[in-house]
Each structure stands twice: as C-alpha cells, then as structure tokens.
Design brief:
alpha/beta; single chain; binds magnesium ion; six-stranded mixed beta sheet; four-stranded antiparallel beta sheet; binds adenosine-5'-triphosphate; Rossmann fold
C-alpha cells in the first residue's frame, strides 16, 4: 500500500465516517436512504412544474453530503421528501426498513418527530422563549432527548442559555436552531441553506457546529447550499440540475469548515 493509499485511509478514519474496516478490506457503511426513480410534479393551475424528474440516490450512515445546484434545480424538494415534509409523485424512498413513499400521515409525523432534525435558512425560533426554552420545545415531545443545555453546549452556546433570540446574533440564532434539531438525537440532520442568511465568517462557525454534530454524534447529514466552496467539507457532493442528479463526487480529503473561504 503506497503512501497515498495510507493517507487516504487516514483521512477516512479521521473523518469519522466511513468505511468500516473488516479483514483488511474497506466496506461501505450501511445505506440509510435509498431513492429510486423519484419524481415530483407540482400542479399549478394549468401548469405542471417538474421539480424532480427521476432521482436515484443512496445516502450512507454517518456521511456528510452537500447538495449543490442552481436555484430551482429541486434541492429543497428532494430534502423535503427525504425528511417527510413533502411527498413524491412517483418513485420510492426507503429510510432504513421504512418505505417513506408508502407511509401514512401518522407514520410520517412520527418519522419527522423522532428521526429527523431540520435546519432552515431562517432560524424559526420562538421570540418569546430563551435559547434553552426554544430547544426544550422539541425535547419535551422527544423519546430520548439530550438536555437542552447539552445540545446548546455542542454548538458552543453554553454561555447563552438564557438569551432571547433578539439578544443573539444571526449565527448564534442559527446555532440554537441546530441545537434544537439535534437535541432529540435524530438519526438524520437535514439542513436547507443553513448559512444562506449569514456572512462568511458567521457561516463558518455554523458549519463547524454542523460538522461537529456529524463527526461526534455520527448523524447522517445533508446540507443544501448554493455555495460551491462549502462542498469541500463534505464526504460526498451531489449536484442537481433541472430535477436530476448530474454528478456525484467523493472528497478523498475533506476540509474542515475553518479552512473554507468564500
Ligand atoms: N410548493 C410548491 N408548489 C409549486 N411549485 C413548487 C413548490 N415548491 C417548489 N416548486 C417548484 O419546483 C422547482 C424546484 O424547487 P426547489 O425549491 O426544490 O428548488 P431549489 O433547488 O431548492 O431552489 P433554491 O436554490 O432557489 O432554493 C422550482 O421550479 C419551484 O418553483
Ligand atoms: Mg431551496
């Protein structure tokens, strides 16, 4: 095995994702999501909008995936279907042994409540509740949650527990939103343009929080962005154009968020 191969292996191990090593072989981690022939058509009066035109996709346990594509390419639609917020027109999505595309509303509600953490561009915090209380809103209905203070500590906000959203910067508010998303110990963290409303310096702090959750908790993570520079922190980058996946790249060397620049 050459130096390059060792280095690659090291990167994989350090990345925390990865590939399990059995009998000296590299095995891919288990598949958590599998989408086949996924389409989504929105009927808008006389017009049909083909948001997804046939997506085949696998996501692996513990990986951090960045979804890149132009505005209107279908990124949010895909994420919302994976997260049980929207339903497909045709095709299938399996999440572990559950067929999301055949789930009842009740099953989808449970799936969203217990398995999925969402982070959106706008933080959607409740203005009249403190950081800790905003996180507690979710932990109170979860099965085996962390303490809100612990979730806030993971995102570096242990000193802001009793601040109201208006007393927090944009980046801090987004980190409260991440704490809220992870406090229920979700298997999956889905982030739709989490840095879209932030300057680059603040965006990097938010990405560090997401990367830490992925690395330390092993939460399978998908991050939508317009920003191609963010792709270098991913294990894999999935490119969408016009409702189709056009390319999937694997990063052999992931950058940590503080190495990113835009
Ligand atoms: N609820 C909806 N009703 C009707 N059309 C929709 C709806 N949601 C999305 N679309 C359309 O589907 C297409 C894909 O939208 P989507 O929001 O998935 O794109 P996106 O890649 O997330 O774009 P952006 O980067 O601007 O957020 C767009 O043409 C959009 O107008
Ligand atoms: Mg979008």
């Amino acid at each position: 095995m050459g130096l390059l191969a060792f280095r690659h292996l090291d990167d994989i191990l350090l990345s925390g994702v990865g590939m399990n090593i059995r009998d000296g072989e590299l095995a891919t981690p288990p598949v958590v999501f599998e989408a086949r022939g996924l389409t989504k058509i929105y009927h808008m009066g006389e017009v049909d909008v083909h948001a997804l035109r046939g997506i085949d996709l696998q996501l692996f346990e513990g990986e951090l995936v960045v979804l890149l594509g132009a505005s209107g390419s279908g990124k949010s639609t895909l994420l919302n279907i994976l997260g049980g917020l929207d339903t497909a027109t045709t095709g299938s999505v399996h999440y572990q042994d559950q067929v999301l595309t055949q789930a009842t509303d009740h099953e989808l509600t449970d799936y969203r409540r217990f398995q999925v953490g969402f982070v959106f561009q706008f933080y959607n915090l409740i203005p009249s509740l403190t950081a800790r209380e905003n996180v507690a809103v979710v932990t109170e209905i979860a099965k085996d949650p962390m303490q809100p203070a612990q979730a806030l500590q993971i995102v570096g906000l242990e000193d802001r527990l009793d601040h109201f959203p208006a007393q927090l910067s944009g980046g801090e508010q987004q980190r409260v939103a991440i704490a809220r998303a992870i406090a229920k110990n979700p298997d999956v963290l889905l982030c739709d343009e989490p840095t879209g409303a932030l300057d680059s310096e603040t965006g990097i702090v938010v990405l560090e929080a997401i990367e830490r959750v992925n690395r330390e908790l092993g939460t399978t993570t998908v991050v939508i962005t317009h920003n191609a520079d963010i792709a270098s922190m991913a294990d894999r980058v999935i490119y969408l154009a016009d409702g189709l996946i056009t390319e999937v790249l694997t990063n052999t060397h992931k950058k940590s968020p503080h190495e990113l620049q835009w």
